[in-house]
Amino acid sequence: MNHNKLLSEPSRAAATNRKVRSHQNLFVASNFLAFLVASGIAFLPPANFFMFGLDGEMNRNGATQLTRFATAFPGMLATPFEGMGTIFQHNSILAPSLLPIVLFGEPFGVWLGYLACAALIFFSTYYFARTLLLDVGICVLAAWALPILCLPYHQIFITYPVNAINPIGGDTFSMGILALALIARGYVVRHVYPVAAALFGIVVWLFLANPIWIPVLVLVLSTVGIGIVVSHFGEKGFWFRTSCLILPTAIFGALGGGAYLLGLFFNTAASIFAHEMYLPGSFSWSVVSAATATAFAAGSNQILSHIVGGSFVVAGIAGTFLGAIRGRSILRTVARSVLVVVCVFWIYCFVYSAAPFMWAWPYPIYFEMALWPFYAIFGTYLFHTIVAGLCRKLGLQAWWMGFRSGLQAQPFRLAATVLFVGFIIGAAFASDPLVLRGLLPVNIDKKPMDTEITRRLQAAIGIAPNAPFRGYVVNVTGRTSKVNAEARWYKVLNQGYEAFGAFGNVHTAAFLWRFGIPTLEQYNELAEPAYYAVITRLLGEGDNRQVRNVVIAARENVPVMQSLGVRYIISDQPVPAPAHLAEKMSSGELEHYLYELPDPNLGNYSPTEIRIARDATAVLRLMSDPGFDFRKSVVLDHVSAQRLQPAREATLTLVRGGWRIRASSAGTSLLLLPVQFSGCLALEEEPSSKGRVVSVQRANLASTALIFSGDIDVTLSLRVSPFWKPHCRLEDAQDVKAYGLAKIPAVL
Questions:
Q1: Cα separations (Å) of 583 from 542, 566, 580, 591?
Q2: With 80 as the cut, is the pLDDT of residue 482 above it?
Q3: How far is the C-alpha of 173 from the C-alpha of 22, rounded, in Å?
Q4: Strands 580-587 and 590-596, how do they pair?
Q5: DSSP assignment, residue 74?
Q6: pLDDT bracket for residue 358 (50, 70, 90)
């Protein structure tokens, strides 16, 4: 017997395995680099389908403006430029796709942000597919397919434009799929601790960066995650590994994360006033699935886009069925779990289409986005199965096996070939880029222009850290009669396109934030219900029907507006006295007027007469009384001080994270602050403060009352976090419900 030969066989096998792994790693790395090349070329100008329109402005300018006022705090960030200092709906600073905009500005930051989002989708899809024990070639093909289908590469491939408006959606479902991959890896790696730490890090990221997407992900993550965990039941070390993977998240949720998340959603206009929310016109299947969505394409490309979207969904579901039947081990487990999610999703779709009360909930397609990685992976698995069968019949099995393992060519020839293919793909996309021109009423791909109105507003009320607060502006253009009040927001939106074409700026919300101009209106999924009630009942029109994430004023009520801090009104009709005209822009029949109000509340309103209201309806009726003087009177739900006198030398300054208030009083005084009240407000006293803050409480339903004595120098910071008073926003929701907010009539 040749012992040397027997001893050399294991070492030869090990060498072969190392060579295979080396080739596979080169194959994957080459594809990833080729993908980045293709994406970088595809996203170059003249492609302009990036963060377009009002939603795009909200996200890109939300990111840059938030950074100006952000503090090092682990939670949601306050927005001094929107809705009287509400919280923004995501933390742009933590998003891989939005951080480059903060760091590098436009246009390079936008290009780099989309490239980062594409890279994250590629990596997460590949990594999860590998945990399903699929061959390298299949995993790589799925990783190529998904970003091209959900990011703005080309007209015929984009399934739905949500990631073109805001790529943080791509960041988020990528993190979700990585979380599932880590759960699966936690049962096969030698040391579970690093995997458990990474998994917990992703959970915390979701809570801090984009919590409003957690309900979108939770069905997929919980169902598939439970399936993966259960599939390992009975294995050695099961309970220990499961505890390491699950307990940190469970403890985090129990200690505050759960209450924080519930508070974000329960303390919203859409939660309390769901019956007032609506979808424009009749139900449309375009908001249901990538298979039914209206493609943002022109001419024959639109038909091709529908075919691509439909094929994506059909192939994904068919491949999932195949995996559930023929797959082995974890592939079969995940496929069966995904089928459960698909069934629940389509039930939701039909309920959504039949029940108008559901229209306050997110469109079904947002929930489907959490399924897209599975569609890509299982669709590729189906493609592999079909092609492998054909190759066997045609005698091409050797070629197909080479593709599957990434070993078809010599290493460097393979890398060069893959890079060349990536360059060709990028060049093909760049030669016919996805552009907005011709797809919408006007070319809103251009940046909003600095107009006479924006220049006047920027000089008068533009915000900056450590600068005095100088008032808000509110846009009331596009108002309608009571008969057509339901469609008012969409009429405003359509007129906004006209204004953009005429003036180069819509003069509302995010189109003003770009220039550091704060607005009373807000464009936010997390719009607070008390704020919503004040705006719709006292500044609204008709039956107050709104959409879930937009709160806009429709008519002038000067006393109320001034009490909320409004200094300027933008209107398309003349506004009577006491407002006086500050600027006017005309283009054809379209006119935008800028009016200034004489006495806005800049943090210096100090009423001395306290009115007590038994419920929210009583508050609004008092505030709607033409004889109610906001300078002299304030409506509270309880008395914190018996006798008040006017404050002296009151100033309100914007600082990072909040508002700094300096004031003095010979006795006890109350300041009515043009800041949304919340139990999440944190009070910090400066060392120079010699007075005493008696209380910080809700005033006039949505505003903040600061009651104090002596000389004060304090800061109010809005802090919403799972790590600091996580129940505060949930308590806000309970307080306003107990105060009868949901019972206020549509018209006072």
A1: 29, 16, 9, 11
A2: no
A3: 30
A4: antiparallel
A5: S
A6: low
DSSP 449: P
Half-sphere exposure of 57 (CA within 13 A, CB side): 23
* DSSP for residue 446: S
User: Can you read off the two tokens belonging to residue 79?
Assistant: 């927005």
CA-nearest of 536, 739, 532 to 624 is 536
CA dihedral 152, 157, 161, 163 (to 10 degrees): -50
Q: Are 703 and 603 in contact (CB under 8 A)?
A: no
For residues 139 and 747, the model is more confident at 139
Query: Is 399 a residue whose pLDDT tops 70?
Result: no
The 8-class DSSP code of residue 48 comes to -
Q: How far apart are CA 520 and CA 561, in angstroms?
A: 9
- What's the pLDDT at 485? 47
Mean pLDDT of the chain: 88
Q: Say which residue, 7 or 137, is predicted with more confidence.
A: 137
What is the CB-side half-sphere exposure of residue 625 using CA atoms within 13 A? 15
Tokens representing 731?
């308590």
* Residue with the two structure tokens 């390079």: 108
Partners of 586 in beta bridges: 591
Task: Copy the structure tokens of residue 730.
Answer: 């949930």
Nearest to 379 by CA among 466, 447, 437, 321: 321
For residue 578, cis peptide bond before it (omega within 30 degrees of 0): yes
Q: Which amino acid is at 199?
A: L
The predicted-structure confidence for 316-344, as pLDDT tens digits, reads as follows 999 999 999 998 889 999 999 999 999 99
Record the tokens describing residue 24, joined without a space: 């596979």
Residue 425's nearest CA partner among 36, 137, 160 is: 36
The 3-state DSSP class for residue 703 equals strand
The rounded radius of gyration (Å) of the Cα atoms in the chain is 29
Secondary structure of residue 669 in the 3-state scheme: strand
Across the range 678-700, mean pLDDT stands at 91
pLDDT tens track for 224-264: 999 999 999 989 999 999 999 999 999 999 999 999 999 99
* C-alpha to C-alpha distance for 635 and 620, rounded to whole angstroms: 9
Cα angle for residues 298, 300, 305 (degrees, 5° grid): 75
Burial class (CB in 10 A: 0-12, 13-18, 19+), 350: exposed
Pairing state between β 472-475 and 566-571: parallel
Give the residue ranges of DSSP H helices in 362-487. Answer: 364-369, 372-394, 397-405, 411-431, 452-461
Give the angle subtended at the CA of 646 by the CAs of 658 and 710, to the nearest 5°: 65
> Within 13 Å and on the Cβ side, how many CA atoms surround 492?
26
Q: Identify which of 548, 528, 479 has the alpha carbon closest to the alpha carbon of residue 276.
A: 548
Tokens 């806000």 sit on residue: 732
How far apart CA 465 and CA 457 sit, in angstroms, is 17
Look-up: residue for tokens 């990536």? Answer: 422
- Pull the structure tokens for residue 713: 């120098």
Range 230-238, long-range pairs (CB < 8 A, 24+ positions):
230/333, 231/329, 231/330, 231/333, 232/187, 235/187, 238/187
**Number of Cβ within a 10 Å radius of residue 191:** 9
**pLDDT over threshold 60, residue 638:** yes
Mean pLDDT along residues 16-20? 63
Mean pLDDT of the 508-515 span: 92
Greatest Cα pair distance, the chain, in angstroms, is 110
CA 703 to each of CA 86, 521, 585, 617, 707: distance values in angstroms, whole numbers, following the listed order? 11, 15, 33, 15, 13
Token output for 264: 């974000």
Q: In terms of DSSP bridges, do strands 522-523 and 550-551 run parallel, antiparallel, or are they unpaired?
A: antiparallel
Phi-psi category of residue 662: left, alpha or beta, with phi > 0 → left and psi -120 to 50 → alpha? beta
pTM above 0.90, yes or no: yes
pLDDT grade for 356, boundaries at 50, 70 and 90 = low
Cis bond before residue 574 (omega within 30° of 0): no
